[in-house]
Amino acid sequence: MVTILDTVSNRDTDAARPRHPEKAHRPDNPIQRKPAWIRVKAPTSPVYRETQQVVRSNNLVTVCEEAGCPNIGECWSKKHASFMILGDTCTRACAFCNVRTGMPGPVDRNEPTGVAEAVATMGLQHVVITSVDRDDLDDGGAGHFAEVIGAIRERAPGTTIEVLTPDFLRKPGALETVVRARPDVFNHNLETVPSKYLTVRPGARYFHSIRLLQQVKEIDPAMFTKSGIMVGLGEERNEVLQLMDDLRSADVDFLTIGQYLQPSSKHHAVARFVTPDEFKAFEKIAYAKGFLKVSASPLTRSSHHAGEDFADLRRARDAKLGGKALA
Questions:
Q1: How far apart are CA 100 and CA 119, in angstroms?
Q2: Computed from CA positions of residues 44, 50, 56, 62, in that sequence, does the dihedral angle turn out positive or negative?
Q3: Which residues pair with 282 in a beta bridge?
Q4: What's phi and psi for 159, nearest 5 deg?
Q5: Contact indicator for 174, 208 with CB cutoff of 8 Å
Q6: Best exposed site among 13, 77, 231, 239 by fewest CB in 10 Å?
Q7: Per-residue pLDDT tens for 174-222?
Q8: Please, which residues bridge with residue 100 across strands?
Q9: Which helix (H) or strand (E) holds 162?
Q10: DSSP percent split of the chain into helix, strand, coil, nearest 5
């Protein structure tokens, strides 16, 4: 069984404001018992506490905690953490997500320095930077992404950087700002198949997200692109295969597929638990369709094993190009 660690509910602000006010009056969706193949251990490693202390001392937010990631024990015990910038409150209200929703506070201008210091202190070889959606900002937070990338480059020049961005819907020029900052990997998750967007991801637009990923390669053909989805939300198998084709048409390099796990009774219900054999089949098909890297398993998440996966990506590209790197 997955152990969900409540690492965020003791914050002082929680008593004053509900975590998901838009979901409070929704009918309950009972949380199903998880199958035997979904298992993680509760963290006991001293390194886990060390990582937690670095995060706290730099006043940072991690998606590991905010999204209730089941892999937090493993990752933090290896000093791997994915930093969530631009605050802990999202302007969207996706039905699957455990990140707090509401009106965000002002942007912390010291955050780039704090993130860079944490990256250097932890000695990270590869770091993932993600964020909440900030529809309230003129650029959706793109300029802040660029500042964080720049600060990490200065403080930890040997660290490779992966960004997992919002869709920057109706934010002209935002994508270009992030790509010009030259992250090593640009990730934007589709999350689910298009037929489920209205109920699962109502604030987003599927083909806008596809186009966003395509534009990254148009601006910088050498930049790795990545996207991920959850399964178990009621999608059909053929819809997943079509989504793979849509991503390949945008020249996306890396696909992640993981099992949706319901954070609370107010979130979207799990339609079914996809078996490990089905994940293996998706992986095989995705590789056949031309992805350089595929990670598909019940506990796959976008940032899980991101450093190792980035190394695999580079090797796969080099092999495809016969050892010749892109300019």
A1: 24
A2: negative
A3: none
A4: -85, 130
A5: no
A6: 13
A7: 999 999 999 999 999 999 999 999 999 999 999 999 999 999 999 999 9
A8: 89
A9: strand 160-164
A10: 40, 15, 50
